[in-house]
What does this fold into?
Amino acid sequence: MLSARLEAILSLLDPCQRLADIATDHALLPIAAVARGIAQRAVAIDLREAPLAEARRNVERAGLAESITLLRGDGLLPLLTVSVEAVMIAGVSGALVIRMLEAVPSLVSSFKQLVLQPNTDLALVRAWARKHGLHLRAERAVIVRSRFFAACAFEPGDGDDPAYRLSGFNAEQLELVGPRLLAEGSEAALRQAEMQCERLSALQHHAPLHAEELATWQLARRFLRGAG
Ligand SMILES: C[S@@+](CC[C@H](N)C(=O)[O-])C[C@H]1O[C@@H](n2cnc3c(N)ncnc32)[C@H](O)[C@@H]1O
It folds into this structure.
């Protein structure tokens, strides 16, 4: 059984022929994607041998060694020679996600879908995607042991991303909160807005620097309460 975080990520994957899961670790995402018939084949990539050994055991146990190829490599670099249409990167920092994407600029627009779940700096990843012609198709959020995780599904698009047309917010505010989470009235996003308001209000006494961020979360909280 997949964790709530991994289920949220997988729920964003559209059916595809070939999927690459970067920073795969245990390979649970590509295993579930192939076992459920969402992806026909998958490549699971990790930088280190130890996680790949566990991935290999899990893939063999699932009886999917014919459909899932394990590769050792840095980020998306192995995809310069292996062609896929869908990419997942989950459970690493937002800075690392961006570094991985920037290492292969010619490839990024060739993917039909990218499902990204950075553990940190979600706003930076959304901003990077918006600047690089990736449109935000959908988002899913979960809270696990008081920790907020959001996954974003991107696809190449022309012109301005329609996800950012939500009225009452500017683009930077939407990058922080998640335009699709707001539009769908996500319960996890409301909980996150409440937690951020609480945290940043407490910080105000010591560091009024966060006033703008607090105002954004308050706006999101008001919007999401209205949506419920
Ligand atoms: C916390 S695990 C995430 C596992 C899985 N994607 C998930 O969301 O549950 C992070 C994995 O990223 C791998 N990793 C770190 N830097 C990497 C890089 N530059 N390229 C590929 N894998 C990397 C690590 O070896 C580790 O297995």
In short: The CA atoms of residues 193 and 217 lie 5 Å apart. The chain is about 45% helix and 20% strand.
